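Entry 12.
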Amino acid sequence: MSEVVRITVVPRREMITVVNGGLSALCALAGIDREQAGRLQLATEEVFLYSVQTIRKAGLESMVTVRFCHHGQGFKIVLEYPGPKGPLDGCFRAGHLDMPEFKSFEAV
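Predicted 3D structure (tokens):
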């Protein structure tokens, strides 16, 4: 796996436009169709916004780094931030699709 682009931004919701710009450009270069690119963008947005929320709840100003890596026939998106793990971090591990169990809707 080789890193193609690394974007580091402040933990603000508005910064998703910067991340999406990089993702859109990479999808176009990789020849990924618009529908699949839209799915990747939505998934990346959700994880990014979750990270921003986790950082803010901890009262930190940690930077969020999004790495786009060439991986086999496609690419892998890695999102990192220093600080405490949020309640859903275990669901975002590479190679796993763990669905959380919600006992109330206040977490959603």
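Annotation: The chain has one domain: 2-92. The beta strands are 2-9, 64-71, 74-80.
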